[in-house]
TrEMBL record, chain A:
Pfam families: AP5B1_barrel, AP5B1_C, AP5B1_middle, AP5B1_N. Keywords: Protein transport, Transport. InterPro entries: AP5B1, AP5B1_barrel, AP5B1_C, AP5B1_middle, AP5B1_N. Residues 179-203 are annotated as: Disordered. The keyword Protein biosynthesis does not apply. It comes from Macaca mulatta (Rhesus macaque). This is AP-5 complex subunit beta-1. Residues 206-570 form the AP5B1 middle domain. Residues 633-702 form the AP-5 complex subunit beta-1 beta-barrel domain.
TrEMBL record, chain B:
InterPro entries: AP2_Mu_C_sf, AP5M1, MHD. GO terms for cellular component: AP-type membrane coat adaptor complex; cytosol; late endosome membrane; lysosomal membrane. This is AP-5 complex subunit mu-1. Gene3D superfamilies: Mu homology domain, subdomain B. The gene is AP5M1. Belongs to the adaptor complexes medium subunit family. Residues 206-496 form the MHD domain.
Length: 821, 510
């Protein structure tokens, strides 16, 4: 039964199992049998866990009436239940029904009246009470969700609907959603808004019946076992919360009795009531009394330690009537003064968990105590210091188990968390820890972990004293490996010479691979921190002297890196690897770090290029490029490749620095066409990011248009004029080609078109009707245009060229001019 | 309120797995609800094997304590309750209620009726306290009257049937499993109406009530400037009421003589039906004054069938029963010890036994001992580096006894000699209690110093007593009343006054 997924992989299998269990039950002879109870439990489990419980399931329709009949103690005929067994089975049936109601909330909504009646008569108190309380709670929640009242549900012994006592409609209203029987507090708070919207006031009669039912349940609650009493209180408390006409004072008569006990479940249930009703049930005096009982229970010698710890947790999460601090954070309740806490403070005699829990309380006291005047003896802060010193002393013991050290560091961490910003606490802590390291360097791992966890407020000063602690001693004892581990964590640019001296002295004692690696790790940390001077010498020495070839190689690598890379780049190269290491080996991780930092990375383009306006004069056509960076980039190199080798190879363009938002000078890219044709340029960018990585990116291609290749003819010595043009015109034939093209004109007319596109190339102009244009197309072609006798919508263009391949390009160009305006 | 699963695991250090799952039970209907309530944060209940491994690791009960393991030893992993999150297969199972007692780990996973991320505060999860009570119930059942392993095995084999009674669907019905044991023999009689759920039958026979008061006295004595000696009495009152009727009403009162010490911090059994507010509020937290309630302490109740702990209390008596003085000085290769013990004149000088244990931690075996004692005999346990001073039944007329001598130790061999994290150098104690430590929650750091161990019958330090007039029964027939008292020592430490000693905050309040 414990593995329903294996037993009944689907709903139908569960249904079959439940049916056969019920069949067996009916076949039992009419005398007492130990089988009836397990059969009922098993059938219930099969239906609930197998997921087949529902109005359409045959087994459900057999089991439910059977259970309710048994619970009601009614005669099921044919001596089905022997008299002696009736009462235990009645209880079992109630338990089964409770489980079914838990899995399908609202199921028993129609049986409330029946159950209540049974409870009033001779039925077994505990199972009926719990069942009624659960069904009542679920019904209240579901009814309020649909805005309905209880109606006569609590009084009708016979269910109102014809469908039997099973309220599948109510189950459906709950969307089959489970109802938390005892919702966690914050969750319940959130749900409250939703509920108050839909909550419907109960009619006075309903409210009276409800109150009567609750009182009935509470009055007999002392007959329940303590754990069941607690369940009842959780159920009823959260059911009645916020309901009109149901004063929480109903619970009051129970409270004194409950507060006196040592039962964990009962005190916990009282706390739940406290959270549910707050001031409505607990006045300030009651709250104080509850706190005192809780404080007492948290240290009572007669209770077991796990209970103490849970009560301590309850104290720090106490649901106060008027909480001051932020929600969800552990804090000492306002009414819990130093006097109350006295017995809850930690001592070295406590076990680790109790010590930490109590230490937390002590820290909270110290934090509050900050403003109070001195002279109060003994001051909690002084006590805290003594305690931490004691913990360190224990951690320093040579043969002590690791747990002692762990507790010491956990306590120190807790103190730094709670008392951050209090130098009076932190300063002695730092010195104490340094002393601990001096005595027991093998705790280096704990120190490294501690440094990783604490804030920089403590980390930086602690690093300094720990470094001093390491380097101030000759590095040749058996603790050398710990010292190196520690130093790799705390070494930085400060106190370089002392650190290097220590390493130099230590190098002679690093005889095995472990130690050498430890030594190199420190070197690496120093490299990262930007230490150069003495480190070069040390690395050189190591590269020669270390016994292990791997160690020598590493030393040499570091030396080469140090010699060849600039500071920031070195920092990145030695920094944590960007790529997750494929192997857990430190060497692999380290190499990956180098690979990432020293090789060119493929990256998305951080730079954009656009082709700027034309208009540069010179012997070659020049492309004007406007770069734009998305992030600061350095040492940008742009490489271009002409597709189809139409032009001579292009030179790379270099830009030292580009920053977003800062306008950059345009870049000039001279083109050397091999034939006068437009082309596509493939562009690659190589740059360094601000983090020091070198990146390579592929940029979108650039297009060189036909017009980008236009150059004016150099002016002849006699000045350009009609004669010059005619000479060119005539020279084109007979090798060249001639054509006439219709060039459409826009609204601005011929004058506008020429001035906009062809201005630099005009040789003879007779505005507004006639222009002679001569264009030099490198390497050595010409294109001559006669634009004459313009009409309103276009101009006929006579064109000649000495390179007939230019002709279609020129035609397309001219036809596209009007559109381009 | 329900539990998803429960386990009993025996802790077996030195074996490959360091433990065995002795019993486990999963509750499928609760698990189904957990899947719905927890939603995306649902973590299924693991198989026994992975659970065992993860739990032992978290409780630091695996033998591999050698290396620093971040997931266990990191300073930021602070656990302040017996409720854990277990990493199993990359997911964290939470909350797992677990504790170790008598080499058995008791564990269960309560249902949390909401999503687990973010985690709800523990205080708001009703299943946590139910889980604890469940585990305590199992523990009580396993260890009540149990003497050896075979008895434990028998009881473990009874558990499946018992849980079918006490917790059929994962929601605990009764933490007292013995009730369920009686319940299984259901063929007995048709039970009458309104039977309390915690009372499974009725008593037939001669009415009798027995009340026994056991006081334990704890003490920390330093004999130092600026540090106050502390002592405290913890009382337990156990009753057995054999009375006819379904719900006999009984009132039991505890009395104090005129010079008795008031009872404080009283915790009562849930069968007590009402409680005087003076009893509820008398607490050791407050400063003592003359107006403290000094009884009689009346407890109206409906007794269960079995023997039960009516109440627990503490008390602050004016003087410790035995005042000790312990000096230990390191002199070159040997230790010089001087001990004085003085019995207070108000204490009954008639012990069942009385002895002082003088352990020496963090040292080698005792090689040489010279001593002089004014009373009693000294036993030497060389290998254990322990001296036991057997004082016997009575202190001499002077009420004062002394022991002095020198002890020499051999070389410290590893592991064999007792280690103690507190008794370093000259820090040492003398104690009046046998050297076994109950309650080894997690890695207990055994204490050391002189410890006194004694027991006095028919006597309480507070003076608290019950007599023929202490029991009122509102039923037919006058019951026979029997009352017992005893005082025993517990954690009675006398610290070396020449060296630092661990103090509690209370010792600093002079």
């Amino acid at each position: 039964m414990e593995y329903p997924a294996q037993l009944w992989p689907d709903v139908s299998a569960a249904e079959v199992a439940a049916t056969s269990l019920l069949d067996t039950l009916v076949l039992l002879p009419p005398r007492p049998s130990a089988l009836r109870r397990p059969l009922l439990l098993a059938a219930t489990t099969a239906l609930a866990a197998g997921g087949s419980l529902g109005p359409t399931s045959g087994a459900s329709c057999r089991l439910l009436p059977l259970l309710l009949g048994l619970a009601a103690g009614s005669d099921l005929g044919r001596g089905f239940v022997p008299a002696s067994e009736q009462r235990p089975l009645q209880a079992t049936a109630c338990e089964c029904l409770r489980e079914l109601e838990s899995c399908k909330p609202g199921l028993l909504g129609g049986s409330l009246g029946l159950l209540r009646g049974l409870l009033g008569q001779e039925g077994p108190v505990q199972p009926l009470s719990l069942l009624l309380a659960l069904a009542l709670r679920n019904t209240l929640v579901l009814q309020s969700r649909v805005g309905a009242g209880l109606g006569g549900l609590l009084t009708d012994k016979v269910p109102p609907t014809g469908g039997g006592p099973w309220d599948w409609t109510l189950v459906e209203e709950g969307d089959g959603r489970l109802q938390p029987q005892a919702p966690s507090w914050p969750a319940a708070e959130e749900g409250e808004g939703e509920r108050s919207l839909t909550a419907r006031e109960h009619s006075p009669e309903e409210a009276r019946e409800l109150r009567a039912a609750v009182i009935q349940l509470l009055d007999t609650s002392y007959l329940l076992t303590p754990v069941a009493q607690a369940q009842l209180l959780w159920l009823l408390g959260w059911a009645l919360r916020g309901l009109q006409g149901q004063p929480p004072a109903l619970f009051k008569p129970q409270l004194v009795r409950l507060l006196g006990t040592a039962q964990l479940t009962l005190l916990h249930a009282v706390l739940a009531l406290k959270a549910a009703f707050g001031e409505a049930l607990f006045t300030a005096q009651d709250e104080a009394l509850l706190l005192r009982r809780l404080t007492l229970a948290a240290q009572h010698p007669a209770l077991p330690p796990p209970t103490h710890l849970f009560y301590l947790h309850c104290l720090l999460s106490f649901p106060e009537n008027w909480p001051l601090g932020p929600e969800g954070e552990e804090a000492a309740p306002l009414l819990l003064g130093p006097q109350l806490c006295r017995g809850l403070l930690p001592s070295l005699l406590h076990d680790p968990m109790a010590l930490l829990a109590r230490l937390h309380l002590l820290c909270l006291l110290c934090a509050e105590d900050e403003e109070e005047e001195k002279g109060q003896l003994p001051s909690p802060r002084h006590y805290l210091e003594e305690l931490l010193a004691g913990l360190r002393q224990r951690a320093a013991l040579d043969e002590g188990p690791r747990a002692l050290a762990t507790v010491c560091f956990q306590a120190s961490y807790l103190v730094t968390r709670c008392l951050a910003g209090q130098p009076t606490v932190l300063t002695p802590l730092i010195h104490g820890l340094a002393q601990l390291y001096r005595v027991r360097p093998m705790l280096a791992s704990h120190f490294v972990d501690f440094l990783d966890q604490v804030d920089s407020e403590l980390r930086e000063p602690l690093k300094v004293v720990l470094r001093q602690e390491v380097v101030s001693r000759p590095g040749r004892d058996e603790a050398l490996c710990w010292h190196l581990k520690m130093l790799a964590k705390v070494a930085d640019g400060d106190a370089q010479s002392a650190t290097l001296n220590f390493l130099q002295a230590a190098a002679a004692h690093c005889t095995n691979w472990d130690l050498q690696q430890g030594l190199l790790r420190v070197c690496r940390a120093l490299l990262r921190a930007g230490v150069r001077g003495g480190l070069v010498d040390l690395l050189q020495v190591l590269a020669r002297q270390l016994e292990d070839p791997d160690g020598r190689d590493h030393a040499r690598l570091y030396y080469i890196l140090l010699a060849h890379l600039a500071g920031p780049k070195l920092g990145v190269a030695l920094g944590p690897s960007l790529a997750p290491p494929a192997l857990a080996s430190s060497l692999v991780a380290e190499n990956q770090g180098f690979v990432a930092a020293l090789m060119v990375q493929e990256a998305p383009a951080l730079v954009r290029l656009s082709v700027g306006s034309h208009g540069v004069k010179g012997p070659l056509p020049v492309l004007k490029l406007q770069p734009e960076a998305l992030e600061p980039i350095y040492s940008l190199e742009l490489r271009f490749r002409v597709e189809g080798q139409l032009y001579a190879p292009l030179e790379a363009v270099h830009v030292p620095c580009l920053c977003p938002g800062r306008p950059a000078r345009p870049l000039l890219l001279p083109l050397q066409p091999r034939c006068p044709a437009p082309a596509r340029l493939d562009v690659h960018a190589l740059y360094t990011t601000s983090t020091g990585l070198t990146c390579h990116a592929h940029l979108p291609p650039l297009f060189v248009n036909f017009a980008d290749l236009f150059l004016p003819f150099p002016k002849p010595p006699g000045g350009a004029g009609l004669g010059f043009f005619e000479e060119l015109w005539d020279s084109c034939l007979p090798e060249g080609a001639e054509s006439r093209v219709w060039c459409p004109l826009g609204p601005q007319g011929l004058e506008g078109l020429v001035s906009h596109h062809l201005e630099p190339f005009v040789v003879v102009a007779q505005p507004p009707t006639s222009y002679y244009v001569a264009i030099h197309l490198p390497p050595n072609s010409k294109l001559l245009l006669r634009l004459e006798a313009a009409l309103a919508d276009g101009v006929p263009v006579a064109l000649r060229t000495d390179d007939w391949a230019v002709l279609p390009l020129a035609g397309d160009y001219l036809r596209g001019l009007a559109a381009a305006l | 309120m329900a539990q998803r699963a429960v386990w009993l695991i025996s802790h077996e250090p030195g074996t490959p797995l360091c433990g065995t799952v002795r019993f486990s039970r999963r509750y499928p209907t609760v698990e189904k609800r957990a899947r719905v309530f927890n939603g995306a944060s649902y973590v299924p209940i693991p198989e026994d094997g992975p659970f065992l491994k993860a739990l032992l690791f978290e409780l630091r009960l695996l033998d591999d304590d050698k290396d620093f393991v971040e997931s266990r030893d990191s300073c930021s992993r602070i656990n302040k309750t017996s409720i854990y999150g277990l990493l199993i297969g990359g997911e964290e199972l939470w909350p797992v209620v677990a504790f170790l007692k008598n080499d058995i780990i008791y564990a269960c996973v309560p249902l949390v009726e909401q999503t687990l991320s973010p985690r709800p505060p523990l205080i708001s999860v009703s299943g946590v306290s139910q889980g604890f009570e469940f585990l305590f119930g199992i523990q009580d059942f396993l260890y009540s009257g149990q003497k050896n392993d075979s008895e434990l095995n028998t009881k473990l084999s009874q558990l499946p049937d018992l849980l079918l009674q006490a917790c059929p669907f994962g929601t605990l019905l009764d933490a007292n499993l013995k009730n369920s044991l009686d319940n299984t023999n259901f063929a007995s009689v048709t039970q009458p109406q309104k039977q309390p759920a915690w009372k499974t039958g009725t008593y037939k026979g001669k009415p009798q009530v027995s009340i026994s008061i056991t006081e334990k006295v704890k003490s920390m004595q330093y004999d130092k400037q600026g540090i106050a000696d502390t002592w405290q009495v913890v009382g337990t009152v156990t009753c057995k009421c054999d009375l006819e009727g379904i719900m006999p009403n009984v009132t039991i009162s505890l009395n104090l003589p005129t010079n008795g010490s008031p009872l404080q911090d009283i915790l009562v059994h849930p069968c007590v039906t009402s409680l005087d507010s003076a009893i509820l509020t008398s607490s050791s937290i407050d400063a003592m004054d003359d107006s403290a309630f000094s009884g009689p302490y009346k407890f109206p109740l409906t007794p269960p069938l079995e023997s039960f702990n009516l109440c627990y209390y503490t008390s602050q008596v004016p003087v410790p029963p035995i005042l000790g003085f312990y000096q230990l000085k390191e002199e070159e290769v040997q230790l010089r010890i001087t001990i004085n013990l003085k019995l207070h004149e108000s204490v009954k000088n008639n012990f069942e036994f009385c002895e002082a244990h003088i352990p020496f931690y963090n040292r080698g075996p005792i090689t040489h001992l010279e001593y002089k004692t004014s009373f009693g005999q000294l036993e030497v346990f060389r290998e254990k580096s322990l001296l036991i001073w057997i004082i016997g039944q009575k202190f001499p007329k002077s009420m004062e006894i002394s022991l002095s001598g020198t002890v020499t130790f051999g070389a410290k061999s590893h592991e064999k000699q007792p280690f103690d994290p507190i008794c370093i150098g000259e820090t040492a104690y003398l104690k009046g209690h046998p050297g076994h430590y109950t309650a080894t929650w997690t890695t207990e750091c055994a204490m050391s110093s002189e410890k006194l161990h004694f027991r006095i019958l028919d006597y309480t330090l507070t003076g608290c007593y019950a007599d023929q007039h202490s029991v009122q029964v509102f039923a037919s027939g006058k019951p026979k009343i029997s009352a017992y008292r005893k005082l025993i020592s517990s954690d009675y430490y006398i610290w070396n006054s020449k060296a630092p000693a661990p103090v509690t905050y209370g010792s600093l309040l002079l």
